[in-house]
Amino acid sequence: MATRAIRVGLIGFGTIGTGVIKLLQRQQRQIVQKLGARLEMARIADIDLKTDRGVKIDRRLLTNDAQALLDDPSIDIVIELMGGYEPARRFVLAAIANGKDVVTANKALLAVHGREIFTAAERAGVDLGFEASVGGGIPIIRVLRDGLAADHNRAVYGIVNGTSNYILSTMTNQGGEFGEVLRAAQQQGLAEANPTYDVDGIDAAHKLTLLIQLALGARVRLQDIPTAGIRDVSQLDINYAKDFGYVIKLLAVAKEDDGLEAWVQPAMVPRAHLLADVNGALNAIAVRGEALGASMYLGLGAGMMPTATAVVADLMEIARNRLHGSRARVAPLGYPLASQRPTRIKPLTELTSEFYLRFLVQDRPGVLARIAGILGEQHISIASVIQKGREIGATVPIVIRTHEAQADRLQRALRGIGRLAAVRAKPAAIRIEDSLGQ
Amino acid sequence: MATRAIRVGLIGFGTIGTGVIKLLQRQQRQIVQKLGARLEMARIADIDLKTDRGVKIDRRLLTNDAQALLDDPSIDIVIELMGGYEPARRFVLAAIANGKDVVTANKALLAVHGREIFTAAERAGVDLGFEASVGGGIPIIRVLRDGLAADHNRAVYGIVNGTSNYILSTMTNQGGEFGEVLRAAQQQGLAEANPTYDVDGIDAAHKLTLLIQLALGARVRLQDIPTAGIRDVSQLDINYAKDFGYVIKLLAVAKEDDGLEAWVQPAMVPRAHLLADVNGALNAIAVRGEALGASMYLGLGAGMMPTATAVVADLMEIARNRLHGSRARVAPLGYPLASQRPTRIKPLTELTSEFYLRFLVQDRPGVLARIAGILGEQHISIASVIQKGREIGATVPIVIRTHEAQADRLQRALRGIGRLAAVRAKPAAIRIEDSLGQ
Hints:
Two copies of one chain form a homodimer. By secondary structure, chain A is of the alpha/beta class. The first copy, chain A, folds into three domains: 4-136 and 304-342, NAD(P)-binding Rossmann-like Domain (Rossmann fold, 3-Layer(aba) Sandwich); 141-300, Dihydrodipicolinate Reductase, domain 2 (2-Layer Sandwich), CATH 3.30.360; 348-432, 2-Layer Sandwich (Alpha-Beta Plaits). The first copy, chain A, has 14 helices and 18 strands. In chain A, the strands form three sheets. In chain A, strands 7, 9, 10, 11, 12, 14, 15, 16, 17 and 18 form a ten-stranded mixed beta sheet that branches. A six-stranded parallel beta sheet of chain A has the order 3-2-1-4-5-6, sandwiched between helices. The termini of chain A are far apart. At the A-B interface, helix 1, helix 2, helix 6, strand 12 and helix 12 of A face helix 1, helix 2, helix 6, strand 12 and helix 12 of B. Strand 12 of chain A pairs antiparallel with strand 12 of chain B, so a sheet runs across the interface.
């Protein structure tokens, strides 16, 4: 008897798409064993049909015409791996409208147009898999949707951008300033030519909107998440962090106590915390639930083959549903959209934290007093001060650790301090995260 | 319209069972939102119907008669939380024979009678959930069965017994010898009155047989897993480990290269490895796949509420299958038993490793030469020796790090060395695990 086939169409034959083809070929026998059916690549659409991707395919599968793929009634599942907002959005909606299940790795698309797409999928009764959109090959979407489904989660946080974690851990472990480490990473293909999404925290914020929906059942707007990247992190700050027993990481954090706090920012994490040891391109996502307490999920958050494992795991799950007549047995987020709570994210004015502050000042009497005065005006109290070396006239760092301070008052104070004649560079302010738990 | 109910019977109203009742009550609204149906506790069987578990239940649900529960045609899913081999085995098989789905936390049962139970479930077309049997609330079963289903896994390893990890990390971070730390843990309810399963590695070996089946698709026999516990780990060894940059952990390891290596033993883990930071009652399980590389999953591996989250997550998944008419859409292990490969575990004679050896000897000339001679006879070569202090006649430690050595030759050498007149205590030998990968 011929093995039944689930037919798959791929839009976007780039790095991840190539990985998916490789993995489907390599794991073919195992997949048939597990599913009792084949996953058959039926059509591959891309604007570039020429480049050799180093993978063997029947060239007749290739097409320039994504619409033809979307309209092909023999195709069961469409994989969208082109990235970006348009035409990815249009293609995904067209696939759903045509009754196809969809697998995508496109976090930007889901962060911005997620509600439209999730709604369309729910109404059409199709499956939408997006495991590859957060944490690469770490099955964090399934963990949140199914594994932790019985708990009331209160927080989700971690390191979700591999590029910026690679840059920060290289700066920490090998030295170098942001600019040079970024350039080296670009040369090694570990950072994009245009690194904005990664190093400015935008990619992390995209992922955080998805994690918040999955873990907390809350609906938020991307633009409400206070977001900062790692461009301003300097070697000087990394070294002070070390002296104080901390490591600087770009964190994405969401916690619900009295209201929802959610932000993407560099932060100082205690050296003893597990997140402090998450180095290189690794991602790590922690979840805190009322019943389970903290749990954590680590692995490679990007790369051809890691990401491909997530895409193919989605294909297998969706294929199972088709084979058992149980499509849409779990909603994409694990609950119907109607039960999602529109939730306000606390603005910067309501966020408080202890901060590490670093100023480069011309060393002359009275500077510290001026700085302390401005902080005091903004009700920011000082826990400790370090002023290393003394060399009248030279530029020296002043490092201050604050008590719990309000983020917007701090911004105001920093603006004021930045205007002092003795202050020679943009002040640095980094959150200190002593209360992450675990 | 009344919400549909999935009716659940519970056998074993102990700590975890109480947690399950609590969680079902606490999360009732969320569960209905997610499933579109209620999970209704229909019957609770236990031999003790008197004790107040501190949870509100309709006392009419309680029964002494597990068989009546198993024969109740209105019950859809049976939760087995009594533990032990019999009558748990009989009850689980009876539930399956009666067409009920089963959820269990009983790793001992599945490690020893798994094949019989998995076969029965597969033939009957019922679902069998056992998320709570490994890693407590960490959803590692789902991760392996679904999340990493597309990869070819080569290794699964980690810290899977919370009690022994608690004891070892207390010994490491606060001092104390095994016996006293165990007694303190027993007083705090963190170790059982009879701690054998936990501290002798048996519980970890139970879990490892399940992890091997899930991650590697291999069928193994529990009794073939070389297993050792932590009773012989001494403060002296923990301190030497620290000096060398290691932490001693009870590891459960399975790796497939040329054949399957699987064992449970205390081992020295490099301080920089993430597993070295897994302290207290935490569990951590790492998986290495060809495509994904290493990924790791951490959380509380035991306790009432953490374990209850796993049980209820299983209930929710199985309820979904009933609601969508897709029971048994995934086999318990993620693949049909027929495709499981009976696999030989390498016996001790084929295992090699670097070892830390520690001898307590009467300090007199020639002792080291005798020890080195016996090691040499067994083809064990020495990488370094530390002999601290010199005090002729006193008892002093000799610490040796070996190069890669065969475990059975080492056992023979240790027996020989143990017989030397100058050797004053049982020699200690601990694997050094430098090649775990992140």
